[in-house]
Amino acid sequence: MSRSMPDKKLERLLPSDVAADDTLYVVNRELKLVYANEEWMRFATGNKGERLLAKDWNPNVLDNMSGQSKERWTHIYRMLLEGRLPHHQEELICSSPSERRLYRLRITPKRDDAGDVAWLVHHTVRVDKGKDVVHRVSERLGELDDPERVNREYGDSITARRLKIPSFRTARHFQPLKSIGGDLIWHREYPEAVADLVHADVAGHGEIAGRLATKIVVLLDELAAAGNGPAAVISGLNRALLEVSPSESKLFATGLFFRFEPGGQRLICSSMGHEGPIFSRTGEVKIENGPPVGLLEESRTWPENIIDLAEHGTRFLVFSDGITEQFNIEGEMFGAARLLQAFRSRLDQPLDDMVRGIVDEAVRFRGAALIKDDQTLLALELVD
Q1: 371 vs 337: CA distance, rounded Å
Q2: Secondary element (H or E) of residue 225
Q3: Which range marks the domain in which residue 71 is found?
Q4: Would 1 be classed as within a structural domain?
Q5: What is the per-residue DSSP string for 34-97?
Q6: 302 part of a folded domain
Q7: How many domains are contained in the chain?
Q8: Are residues 40 and 104 located together in one domain of the fold?
Q9: What is the CATH number of the domain that holds 326?
Q10: Angle between the 147-154 and 207-224 helix axes, to the nearest 10 degrees?
Q11: CATH of the domain at 19
């Protein structure tokens, strides 16, 4: 039997697209459970949720969590309740004694008559039954075993892709060591001025690295289409790379994943074992790191860090180690300190001029020494 909300008028808040085997539940501002449908009750019974089924109704949903998981969800719920997130969506892996299942969770804030967020509606649908999606992605990835196709895809999907982030100006220097390489820049825009940006650097360079970089773009296009949060997209990407790229099994990728929210003042950033970013006011911002993708099993996590541009500065740089680990003929490395100095000395210049000036300075530093890696320098500036 379903648990009901105390006030029946709240039932109008429930989404209309709930299928028979979806789970649905609602929590109030105190994160206490005030409604759950029958499917949720069955799910809880089969997934060690006895504490949430106790006679004492209205349990707090955080009571069944601990450690980093509890800390992470506390942060997500706080942002939703304060109106700093319009919604939250991610994929979850839930295991029963008999099978491993993948679900997509959508959390939608609902407001009361005063305009305050009063409830959080949780709608969970099972998504590992989408064989058509798996087949389509597998076909796309299979096409990338053809070197000529990789060259075309790398050019179309990475080199030539126009970068547009709402509320931001962008400029970039993108130079593969060969015709294609392991560096990539990917982005996607969503409704309500939300956008994602990924810069990644595949270990190595040349055709093999370029093939994996192009596969990463294909996978990001598919994973991000569901509107998942950064941590969920990275988790899905990591899982997919371990499963679908045996020919590049010795390769992995580092990178940064940015979620841009309306207004642009706050960024969500997840690091996949990558340096940076470097900001105009505070320099390199130390963020909680996760591992590279394609290297370790699915149990790893990628923390979502909140970066406030009012604190750190409205211009910032994202870069590959081909920039900072460039050596001159004396064996000196250009390094992050020189990059920061070159950045700050040009903050009064237009963004494109600034990027060209930084690259020119790195070239002068290198002198007659060889370039040994792909080079990417991406600059972003919040527009007033």
Answers
A1: 19
A2: none
A3: 8-126
A4: no
A5: EEE-HHHHHHHHHTT-GGGGSSS-S-BGGGG--HHHHHHHHHHHHHHHTTS-S-EEEEEEEE-S
A6: yes
A7: 2
A8: yes
A9: 3.60.40.10
A10: 60
A11: 3.30.450.20
- Tell me the pLDDT of the chain (384 aa) as tens digits: 344 444 555 566 777 767 777 888 899 999 998 888 888 777 766 555 555 555 455 788 898 777 767 887 888 899 899 988 888 877 776 654 445 567 778 899 998 888 899 999 998 887 765 555 555 666 777 777 788 888 888 887 787 778 889 999 999 999 988 888 899 999 988 877 889 999 999 988 888 888 889 989 988 888 886 567 788 889 888 888 877 655 555 678 999 999 998 888 889 999 999 987 999 999 988 888 888 998 876 556 788 899 999 999 999 999 999 999 999 999 999 999 999 999 999 999 999 999 999 999 999 999 999 998 999 999 999 997
Total count of residues recorded for the chain: 384
Domain boundary among 110, 126, 142: 126
Report yes or no on 119 lying in a domain.
Answer: yes
| CA 228 to chain centroid | 8
